[in-house]
Amino acid sequence: MTLNVAIYGASGYTGAELLRLLIPHPDVTVTALSAESNAGKPMASVFPQLAAYDLPTLTTIADLDLAPVDVLFCALPHGTTQTSLKAALEAKPELKVVDLSADFRLSDPAMYAHWYGHAHQAEALQTEAVYGLTEIHRAAVAKARLVGNPGCYTTTALLPLVPLVSAGVIETDTIVIDAKSGVTGAGRAAKVGTLFAEVSEGFHAYSVGNHRHTAELDQELSLAAGADVAPTFTPHLVPMNRGIYATIYVDGDPKTVHGALAERYADEFFVTVLPFGEVPQSRHVRGTNFTRIGVVADRRAGRTIVISTLDNLVKGASGQAVQNMNVMCGLDEATGLEQLAMFP
To answer: What is the CATH number of the domain that holds 79?
Structure first.
């Protein structure tokens, strides 16, 4: 089976990362690429590393022909995706879509309006969309036509926390998530806050107490617990290109926490739970779709430190999107995603 694939928003970091993964994918042909501000240009003029490959010329969404397309990846900015995907699925209902923006991650329209400041423009699709944390919602992803790919921070935190909450081995009212992201998590658009001189030689917290990924954490942890869960979450920007590193503090017996995670992920290809007491490093997942999780006992009895790391552009975005496509289309889940870490 060969899947014809298109990408809306191919000129951003996640679009380029999708192409890095899809070009060698044995079951994919890249059929169409859109980029509004770069329409009419070859992809190599935007990302020269792709010059060796025969890729479609960039076009506008309005001019992109969906007729031959089987799978559409949407890598548009948050808030711009809803009407575009509504139109695409009205034009071709059998299309399978993976959206990498935040527009279809939240199932509750009121919650979306609260966190994003406006009513959702495609509520029927919002309630239909499956939250694409693949290891947790694999069965639902397999039946979906629209998947809302999770955020990078939330993927990093939820992969360890959902099994722990589901198993009832940690307290749900004392969860603290202290997370750091590389600069690519902010996208490719020019912004003062991501200039080299603003980011290098230091790091800082941002969106303290109100980061939008908090809504995803609340939604998924509450679903796992069967009751309201509202963790404390603080993101930080660090001077590296890619990567997420989350240090998570929970109340629960350390060995029990480690055992629950080791059992849950024993057969998962993309999630590795390290031996008890070992600490993961972000460099060991750079460029890959893998997540590494470590569990360490705190000096206080009954308190546990869980550390999780992944590449924000791969498992935190484009890699998980391809993983979801593989599941949606009945392919082997790891196809096209077995790259080893780029280290050193």
So the answer is: 3.40.50.720
